[in-house]
Amino acid sequence: MLQVSIIGASGYTGAQLVELVCNHPHMTLARTFVSAQSADSGKPVSVLHGNLAHMTSQILEPISDDLLHTLSQSMDLVFLATPHEASHDWMNTLSQGKAKILDLSGAFRLQNTEVFAKHYGFAHTANDSLAKAVYGLAEWYADDIANASIVAVPGCYPTASLSALKPVVQAGLLDATVRPIINAVSGVSGAGRKASLNTSFYEVSLQAYGVLNHRHTPEIEAYLGTDVIFTPHLGNFKRGILATVTIKTAAGTTAADLQNAFEHAYNGKPFVRLRESFPKIDDVAYTPYVDLFWKLDENSGYAVITSAIDNVMKGAASQAIQCANLIANLPITKGLIGA
Ligand SMILES: NC(=O)C1=CN([C@@H]2O[C@H](COP(=O)(O)OP(=O)(O)OC[C@H]3O[C@@H](n4cnc5c(N)ncnc54)[C@H](OP(=O)(O)O)[C@@H]3O)[C@@H](O)[C@H]2O)C=CC1
Ligand SMILES: CC(=O)N[C@@H](CCC(=O)OP(=O)(O)O)C(=O)O
Fold it and tell me: Do 172 and 294 belong together in one domain?
């Protein structure tokens, strides 16, 4: 059994990981952590997340530098479901032992440290760890992930956006002179569990934010290889992302070409469902799937692709488990689909 610890286990993605690890037939949840000063340290994780009540009696422990070192030596897998700064500051210590680290934050997704500093607001100084980090978009970088000691699990919007766009780029069907336009709506769980006015029940409506400067724009561009216009929106629902992606296809592209591109990209990829109509958020909420559908106007060359995911699952925790399965040489579906 793989010995697993989760740091940030009281948050939305951390608690989702607790559930997935407890249900995983090859993983044992050894320890769960919150920050050193957390008001929740000493509490059972199931007191904060009642859906876990039947599943675990794990207590949330306060993390410390000494413990990071211990975990690096004693665990097989450590999941970081923590703020970017915390993951950044801890990675060098955590990654020095045998443990493989799966980081759900954005701290190790961008190899360009200037772009990182501009979008994350602090300098990247964990150079050795950054050099080792592999981007965890599981359907696209499986071989690299399988051999990685540090996985930077993608952001939720980049997962939805790249899943829609990469097949088109890979097949050479994108007119690269016209930037893809991504409009995406996320449920409030995307903003994390901490209380804030913007995400309180009475305030949340449907609104664009981060316009033309969201940190996921450079992440999408880095792993797509082309610039995009990305506009996130906050919606008044709990879980899920619906991304509507408008592209100009290369001259002469047919509907059959697009169909072939998606079928080729996702043949044998059990978490990607190529749908026969436009997916809705309820189709994927609380699941590890990406649902895709598209329509091409062959006259104008414009196509609209819809991508739907659960931000906490495929956009974070279940994608991290996919990556862990790859590292452990287990079937990628283990603990997520079927037995
Ligand atoms: N929510 C989502 O849909 C997605 C989130 N992510 C990323 O995953 C990470 C976790 O997100 P999410 O679960 O939403 O966040 P939450 O705010 O819900 O949870 C954050 C967790 O980290 C703990 N924490 C906060 N500060 C520290 C610290 N300095 N040291 C140790 N633990 C700390 C919190 O507990 P406490 O403060 O009590 O210590 C809590 O357990 C973030 O980096 C986020 O950007 C990525 C993809 C999707
Ligand atoms: C609705 C909402 O606020 N969503 C978050 C994205 C969550 C995510 O993917 O997180 P990281 O890239 O930070 O890991 C945001 O826009 O900041």
Answer: yes
Cα separation of 187 and 206, whole Å?
10
Q: Is residue 175 domain-shared with residue 304, that is, in the same domain? A: yes
At 108 the pLDDT is: 98
Residues 170 and 297 in one domain: yes
Q: Kindly report the average pLDDT of the chain as a whole number.
A: 97
Catalytic residue chosen out of the listed positions 156, 171, 309, 327: 156
Tell me what ipTM this predicted complex has: 0.98
Kindly state whether residue 280 falls inside one of the protein's structural domains. Answer: yes
Pocket test for ligand 1, best of 7, 13, 309 (most atoms within 8 A of CB): 13
Catalytic, 156? Answer yes
pTM of the predicted model as reported, rounded to 2 decimal places: 0.97
* Ligand 2 midpoint to CA 299 (Å): 37
Q: How far apart are CA 90 and CA 232, in angstroms?
A: 29
Residue 182: which residues within 8 A CB-CB, separation 6 or more?
157, 161, 220, 228, 229, 230, 231, 243, 244, 245
DSSP E strand boundaries for 8-90: 27-34, 60-62, 77-80
107 and 178, same domain (yes or no): no
Which residues constitute the domain of residue 199? 156-311
Domain contains 283: yes
The answer to whether residues 219 and 282 belong to one domain is yes
